[in-house]
Amino acid sequence: MERKGKNVWWKLGHIRSVYLSLTLIVLFIVAMFGLPKPPPKSISLYVQKTYDLIESMEPGSIAFFQCSNDYAWYVTHIPGAIGMLKHAIDKKIKIIELETSNEGTMIFSYVILPAILPRMEEMGYEYGKDWVKLGYVAGGDAAYKAFCDDPRNIGTDVFGNDIEDLPLFDEVKSGADIDIILFTGYGLHGAIRQIVSRYDTPMVACSHAGGLQWFFVFLQTGQLDGFIHGWSGGREYEHLIGEPGLGTFGSMAVSVGFYLCIAGIVIANIAFVGMKLFGEDKK
Amino acid sequence: MGILGGLVLIEYYTTIPALNNLVSKLSTMAVILASFASVLGLFNIYRYHYGNIKNKEGGLWYLSIITVCLLTFSILYGLYAGIYSDVYQWMWFYLAAQTYAAGLSISGFYMITAAYRACVARSAEAFVLLIATIVILFGSAPLTMAYLPGFKPIDNWFLSVPSAAAGRGMTIGAGIGTLALGFRLLYGKEKMITRVGEEKV
Q: How far is A163 from A151, CA to CA, in rounded Å?
């Protein structure tokens, strides 16, 4: 592309991609390690609702946790998911984990569980009695239905223990015994169809901010009671439970990415208007 | 298949105990079938890549060798040492998760350059899109909510009214489409998915 003889407006509208990318890298690093991480001054409505719902649960309530993330996006969901689970553990809520996505079960095993296990130990959680990891069950809706009709349909947990031998399932005989669903990822339709709609179970979820419009549909119908949106929501939730973590640490870098996008759009439009008014060639 | 599908559909909207018990058993059977389908999927992956390697198709057959080796190793090692073993976790953290994360991170650079190149107000419609984009981007940044909490209602309005309306339309459209497809399947009119009649004799 011939840049010679072009005016400043043209050059402003034709910044090379490599410079934009380099700016993003530098700003990311500065934001991650150099900028202060101020606490949020207000909490979003649905993040607050998520917190209030978990807070209102009685100790000993049963939560059904599902991680339906994929490897690409899981980092954006993790702050919210870990925040929800830590809060649930503080409230002594019993947790049953079941996945209908094979990627979700790996993310739960390797990322979420190591983050919440110390808190479980601190709170005296006992495997089989206070929490159970059922792992991946194939079949999507059919898996939810089979579990909700009778958890024994699943057979064993992920460690090979017979479900009938786990004391937690003395309290959980069907989907009606689940008090709350904690969900992270995208594919919440199965849980809504098979658990929320059948048993009127309250449900809260966290996903990345880009998926907000899909979740709003269910928030407005009342099928979803609360929602944590990506890093931003995760950071707010960490603030609510008083434990700054990954969401707080990464939030500045995410902000920088968004602001650079806005800066790019503004510069491109100034250049566009400039070229319209003054032309492309040097004057 | 049509009869069984119909029974499952009726059970969802009714509370007939006999039907509930029957569909409950069907659901358990479906879970077992789905588990077998996963194994079948694995065999299909092997068959596909074996075909690639055998015929040296597409110039990417060596990628099939890598896939088969990784898959075989992860299955055998996973069965031998369990998914919590160091090597298995290393494969997940440093191969699978990093590859996906790198793919997504690269799209961040594309988004920045695409926003710069494409979001120009060349028409009235483009101007509206531009404003919505800036509002959503600005509102989604955690720093905005730290310093400008008053901006939240504007961001929320965009998400809960125009954006959710479009999302709702798409969800309803997809739902009606799925229902129509389901009914066609139940009546035996839809043969594309099941590929009935396509088998060469």
A: 8
Is A44 within 8 Å of B152 when comparing Cβ atoms? yes
Cβ-based neighbours of B28, under 8 Å, separated by 6 or more: A146, A149, A153
CB contacts, 8 Å: B159 with chain A: 212-213, 216
**And the tokens for A105?**
């079960």
Average pLDDT, chain B: 83
> CB neighbours of A5 closer than 8 A, spacing ≥ 6?
A281, A282
What sign does the dihedral B178-B183-B184-B186 (CA atoms) show? Answer: positive
Instruction: Out of B30, B99, B109, name the one closest to residue A139 (CB).
Output: B30
Task: Give per-residue pLDDT as tens, A177-222.
Answer: 999 999 998 888 889 988 999 999 999 999 887 677 778 888 888 9
Residues of A in contact with B146 (CB under 8 A): 38-41
Test B141 with A137 for CB contact under 8 angstroms. Answer: no
Residue located via tokens 């043209």: A10
Question: Using a CB-CB distance cutoff of 8 angstroms, which residues of chain B are in contact with residue A140?
Answer: 34
Task: Name the band, by pLDDT with cuts 50, 70 and 90, for residue A4.
Answer: low
Nearest to A20 among B24, B100, B113 (CB): B113
B90-129 exposure pattern, b = at least 16 Cβ within 10 A, e = fewer:
ebbeeebbeebeeebeeeebebbbebbbebbbeeeeeeee
Entry pTM:
0.82
Cross-chain residue pair A17–B156, CB shorter than 8 Å: no
Closest CA to A131 of A192, A43, A61, A83: A61
